[in-house]
Specification:
mainly alpha
Length: 183
């Protein structure tokens, strides 16, 4: 909608979104091999990149050019691939087996709430009076709640960092010499 408000037709926007999707797939494939170290930072920072991207795009980059929305979408899509790709690894390495289902369910429920809240952006824009205010309110509330969770669970966050600091040991690598040999 923001790009359409800049005067481009939906056919042109559709072509740009298609190209963005193709580029996103290629970039995600290129990024994935570098996700085996520093998983804590890559997982949690990717969620923050996703959270601040919309307000940054709408409040700052929109004033530069409409194409910045597409670039922001590309960054968000690749970052979402990183966060999604690392979530299972974070869960398997950081939580005891018996808690994984419960934690995954809670995270998925919170993610569903966040996705559901994104559909409130248009009415929020009408109530707030501008896309900028809607973006700041719509992303500011989850950011505040996330900061509260981080602040009240500092000890757990530190443990995540410690557990996820070691790189993944790939089968057959020099880090794990006795694993997965073919006979």
């Amino acid at each position: 909608m923001l790009i359409a408000e800049q005067g481009l037709g939906l056919d042109v926007i559709s072509i740009f979104y298609t190209l963005e999707g193709l580029l996103q797939a290629v970039l995600t494939i290129l990024v994935m091999p570098w996700l085996d170290t520093n998983m804590f930072w890559k997982f949690f920072l990717s969620t923050w990149v996703i959270l601040v991207s919309a307000p940054l795009s709408i409040c700052v980059l929109d004033r530069i050019h409409w194409f910045c929305h597409l670039l922001t979408l590309l960054v968000v899509d690749v970052t979402l691939g990183v966060a999604t790709g690392l979530m299972s690894v974070v869960l398997l390495r950081a939580l005891p087996w018996e808690y994984i289902t419960t934690f995954h369910t809670q995270v998925s429920a919170l993610g569903g709430l966040a996705v559901g809240a994104s559909f409130v952006q248009m009415p929020l824009r009408s109530a707030a009076g501008s896309w900028e205010a809607a973006s700041l309110i719509g992303h500011g509330i989850p950011a505040f709640l996330l900061l509260v969770v981080y602040a009240t669970h500092r000890h757990a966050m530190r443990k995540f960092w410690e557990v996820l600091a070691d790189p993944i040991q790939l089968p057959g690598s020099t880090l794990d010499p006795g694993c997965c040999t073919l006979s």
